[in-house]
Automatic annotation (TrEMBL):
<feature type="domain" description="Peptidase S1">
    <location>
        <begin position="4"/>
        <end position="86"/>
    </location>
</feature>
<dbReference type="GO" id="GO:0004252">
    <property type="term" value="F:serine-type endopeptidase activity"/>
</dbReference>
<dbReference type="GO" id="GO:0006508">
    <property type="term" value="P:proteolysis"/>
</dbReference>
<dbReference type="InterPro" id="IPR001254">
    <property type="entry name" value="Trypsin_dom"/>
</dbReference>
<dbReference type="InterPro" id="IPR051487">
    <property type="entry name" value="Ser/Thr_Proteases_Immune/Dev"/>
</dbReference>
<dbReference type="InterPro" id="IPR009003">
    <property type="entry name" value="Peptidase_S1_PA"/>
</dbReference>
<protein>
    <recommendedName>
        <fullName>Peptidase S1 domain-containing protein</fullName>
    </recommendedName>
</protein>
<comment type="similarity">
    <text>Belongs to the peptidase S1 family. CLIP subfamily.</text>
</comment>
<dbReference type="Pfam" id="PF00089">
    <property type="entry name" value="Trypsin"/>
</dbReference>
<keyword id="KW-1015">Disulfide bond</keyword>
<dbReference type="InterPro" id="IPR043504">
    <property type="entry name" value="Peptidase_S1_PA_chymotrypsin"/>
</dbReference>
Length: 99
């Protein structure tokens, strides 16, 4: 790896915990190392409330320890306005919103 791009990552709350790696040499593709297609441009204005999306990661488990297994969940997308109204009662964690 020659560079790691994580410009907005926050160690405080793990916000923006996605990284792009620039490889010095091409990776060997295996059953565990695969390519991913990224959109040339993403327009979040085309998402509507109720659109389904996937979130995946190695977040904290029920014991507040980092999970060693990649976990995924399908969630409905909601507007920031609806999220703010609902989440003010529950918590300040980051659910899946339009941005």
């Amino acid at each position: 790896v020659s560079e790691i791009f994580m410009p907005d990552f926050s160690l405080l709350n793990f916000d923006s915990d996605v990284a792009l790696l620039k490889m010095e040499v091409p990776a060997l593709l295996t059953s565990q190392v695969q390519l991913v297609c990224l959109p040339a441009r993403f327009d979040d204005s085309k998402l509507e409330n109720g659109t389904r999306g996937w979130v995946a990661g190695w977040g904290l488990n029920g014991s507040n320890k980092r999970d060693a297994t990649l976990t995924q969940v399908e969630l409905p997308v909601i507007s920031n306005k609806d999220c703010s109204r609902e989440m003010i009662i529950v918590s300040r964690d980051h659910p899946m919103t339009l941005n």
